[in-house]
């Protein structure tokens, strides 16, 4: 009798557990059904492996399948809502309910990071799914100071963007010629580039903006935490839900950009050669939690790029690596939390200015 009672109690607890695990909040954004404990994690990983390892591509497919710019998921036991349109990104940045401190993954294995992890504790690592990250190197940290995230992420994103900008000089020699001509006509031969020079070099600035739009090296912005029940795109986002924003989707929206798959710096210039059309360019995020290192990153990117292009002409080569792999520039990026260019060969030929 006691055994039967315990079995019945265990069955009741199991059913209650499964109901709780499988329960979908009322008016929660559309998305695939999830499994107990693991949620949608196996599905997302499988889809990522089928689409270049990029979580942004997975979100694109889910958005198409469910005909919605807001997707509701569960990764592990954590609810995750993804906004994929400009209206959702803008609304997310304006609502105070989405300004909760996130649980951020920090890629690294240093003793200092481990010490912080022990001090602050861990949580589910949502961003393990951002590309092909390695579990052993991802540590969940609840950071009270976002300066930590900026300090760790700024060099990687800036160097990756500069690398891609130089690569596009090889891919588009006509664009490189325009960059050289503008620099030669506006800067003195021995002048050291300064960030203020961007006012004299609108085409160069437009080119760098197009690099950031075209590649979107941080394709998914976040995570943020909902500190109260709120709405996004008309759907309910329960308190403590993790919220991600698909910046790449905004940057590749054909309804706004017209030809997003075409690399065209001129889209950011008007007839008076003034910078325009930047309101939907969000490489540094938006709102109160916009990247704190934005000004420094823009300054370094501009001055480094102009400094290189002022002195060199970039030319690709037909060489291959030792294992026979082509080292030509590729528009397909290496997946990860921050996307980056695949290795390529380039020759820096010193320029002679007339």
UniProtKB/TrEMBL annotation:
One Pfam match: p450
Main location: endoplasmic reticulum
Superkingdom, taxonomy of origin: Eukaryota
Cofactor list: heme
An annotated Gene Ontology molecular function: iron ion binding
Listed Gene3D superfamilies: Cytochrome P450 (1.10.630.10)
Iron is among the record's keywords: yes
Signal peptide: 1-18
Family named by the database record: Belongs to the cytochrome P450 family.
Designated name of the protein: Cytochrome P450
């Amino acid at each position: 009798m006691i055994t039967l009672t315990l079995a019945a109690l265990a069955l009741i607890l199991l059913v209650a557990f499964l109901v709780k695990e499988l329960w979908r909040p009322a008016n929660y954004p559309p998305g695939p059904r999830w499994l107990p404990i693991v949620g949608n994690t196996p599905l997302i990983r499988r889809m990522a492996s089928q689409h270049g390892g990029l979580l942004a591509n997975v979100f694109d497919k889910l958005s198409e399948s469910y005909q919605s710019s807001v997707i509701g998921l569960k990764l592990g036991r954590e609810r995750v809502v993804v906004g994929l349109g400009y209206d959702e990104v803008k609304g997310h940045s304006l609502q105070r309910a989405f300004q909760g401190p996130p649980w951020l993954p920090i890629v690294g294995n240093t003793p200092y990071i481990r010490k912080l992890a022990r001090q602050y504790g861990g949580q589910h690592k949502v961003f393990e799914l951002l590309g092909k990250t390695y579990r052993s190197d991802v540590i969940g940290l609840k950071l009270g100071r976002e300066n930590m995230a900026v300090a760790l992420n700024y060099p990687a994103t800036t160097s990756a963007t500069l690398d891609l900008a130089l690569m596009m000089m090889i891919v588009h020699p006509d664009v490189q010629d325009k960059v050289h001509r503008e620099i030669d006509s506006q800067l003195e031969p021995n002048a050291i580039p300064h960030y203020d020079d961007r006012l004299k070099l609108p085409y160069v600035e437009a080119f760098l903006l197009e690099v950031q739009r075209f590649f979107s090296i941080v394709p998914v912005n976040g995570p943020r935490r909902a500190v109260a029940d709120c709405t996004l795109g008309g759907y309910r986002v329960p308190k403590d839900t993790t919220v991600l924003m698909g910046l790449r989707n905004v940057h590749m929206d054909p309804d706004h950009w017209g030809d997003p798959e075409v690399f065209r710096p001129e889209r950011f210039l008007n007839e008076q050669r003034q910078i325009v059309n930047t309101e939907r360019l969000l490489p540094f995020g938006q709102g109160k939690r916009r990247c704190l290192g934005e000004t420094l990153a823009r300054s370094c990117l501009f001055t480094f790029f102009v400094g290189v292009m002022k002195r060199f002409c970039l030319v690709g080569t037909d060489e291959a690596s030792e294992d026979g792999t082509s080292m030509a520039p590729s528009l397909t990026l290496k997946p990860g939390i921050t996307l980056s260019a695949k290795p390529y060969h380039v020759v820096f030929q010193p320029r002679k200015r007339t």
